[in-house]
Amino acid sequence: MNKAFTKEEDGSSPQRLPDLPISSHPNHVTPRGLRLLQERKAALDAEVTRLRENRDYLPDPYPLSVAERDLRYVEARLASAILVEPPQTPPEHVSFGATVEVEDEDGRKAKYTIVGEDEAAPDQGLITHISPLARALLEAKVGDIVEWPKPTGIVELEVLSISFDAA
């Protein structure tokens, strides 16, 4: 077909971006994680509305496409969320949502909270339940030594305490 007869994209309507990949793991969330997803959805709803209302004045439709894609992702994550409430009794072992204080072989202490994938922030001690560290800690009890497989080798951690934040 002659190029003269094909419609070229004029940039006036946003392109639908491919959806962000969704994890195949169960979407467990803490109460905090669920609140964060709900807040993110509300912010994205507002952003999409604002961008659609100002579509005629946008020099580039790309920000709207990104906001719509991100909103689809958050809506999918909310739809598949499995809320895991903290236990009502003192914990006997590490489970989802627990904050665990550990000490390594060199005496360095650290705290990690096991959370859902969307809530994870390793630099803040929030680790996803599917991470090697979380898998090493799950089901451990105070006083247990767990082996954390790292690329540089196995690190032994002693579980010092287990706690849960109130919902």
From TrEMBL:
Keyword tags: Elongation factor, Protein biosynthesis
Region of interest called Disordered, as start-end residue ranges on this chain: 1-34
GO BP of this protein: DNA-templated transcription elongation; regulation of DNA-templated transcription elongation
Domain of life according to the entry: Bacteria
InterPro entries assigned: GreA/GreB_C_sf (IPR036953), Tscrpt_elong_fac_GreA/B_C (IPR001437), Tscrpt_elong_fac_GreA/B_fam (IPR023459)
Gene Ontology MF annotations: DNA binding; RNA polymerase binding; translation elongation factor activity
Record-given protein name: Transcription elongation factor
Residue ranges of domain Transcription elongation factor GreA/GreB C-terminal in the record: 92-163
Stretches with biased composition (Basic and acidic residues): 1-10
Protein biosynthesis listed as a keyword: yes
The keyword Protein biosynthesis belongs to this UniProt entry's keyword annotation: yes
